[in-house]
Specification:
GO terms for molecular function: oxidoreductase activity, acting on the CH-OH group of donors, NAD or NADP as acceptor. By secondary structure, the protein is of the alpha/beta class. The protein has 8 helices and 8 strands.
Length: about 220
């Protein structure tokens, strides 16, 4: 399993599996198949499996009495107690990240944000990718996929890996699980990486401000 080194020296698998909105037997079977294939990294964010954060009218409920700083210090306590080894942030923009770096004793090991060929972004820290891949019908990516005899999804995942991004694809199909994991036997050339760089549209697909009235995502 290929890994990326975090700022605390620990290794994190560079490819994972998202289990968003999966529960019960379906997630049990999915994890069993994924582990057999070789996956060791699973994105189990609670927001994907519960609507408890929404009130009866579907409006997002936000507890403004709990600060991000106090939440972070509580997570640091988990590290001190040996309950977790690494902690990170999600959807933090540059300002929130700077704040966190200023008040934290344990620095965030990763920031999980949306990024894909249509919404490319660079950073000086480890990035973990989430978000729908909206570019699978792109003619440029299709051409690259044909060149390597791979699927477009495999090309996109490989592109993310070569940018030192931890990628988190999601699928419940056994064939797709295997395909998504089979991205370590080839490498995109520098020219093809530049070619994919040219398809960037600054297109964010996760826009909660349109639905909930608050911009949660960096």
């Amino acid at each position: 399993m290929a890994t990326i080194k975090l700022n605390n020296g620990l290794e994190m698998p560079i490819i994972g599996l998202g289990v968003w909105r999966m529960e019960g037997k379906s997630i049990k079977d999915l994890l069993f198949n994924a582990i057999n294939i070789g996956y060791r990294h699973f994105d189990c964010a609670g927001v994907g499996t519960t609507s408890s954060a929404l009130d009866e009218d579907g409006v997002l409920e936000i507890d403004t009495t709990i600060s991000l700083e106090s939440t972070w210090h509580a997570m640091e306590d988990l590290v001190s107690m040996g309950l977790v080894r690494s902690i990170g942030i999600s959807n933090y923009d540059i300002f929130l990240t700077r704040d966190c770096l200023a008040y934290s004793k344990v620095k965030p090991a990763v920031n999980q944000i949306e990024t894909h060929p249509y919404f490319q972004r660079g950073a000086a820290a480890n990035i973990e990718w989430f978000g729908s891949v909206s570019c699978l019908d792109d003619p440029v990516l299709k051409g690259v996929a044909e060149k390597y005899k791979k699927t477009v999804a495999q090309i996109v995942l490989r592109w993310g890996i070569q940018r030192s991004t931890v990628v988190i694809p999601k699928s419940s199909l056994l064939r797709r699980l295997q395909e998504n994991f089979d991205v370590f036997g080839f490498e995109l050339t520098k020219g093809d990486m530049e070619l994919i760089k040219g398809v960037d549209r600054k297109l964010r697909t996760n826009q909660p401000a349109k639905f909930w009235g608050i911009d949660l995502y960096a």
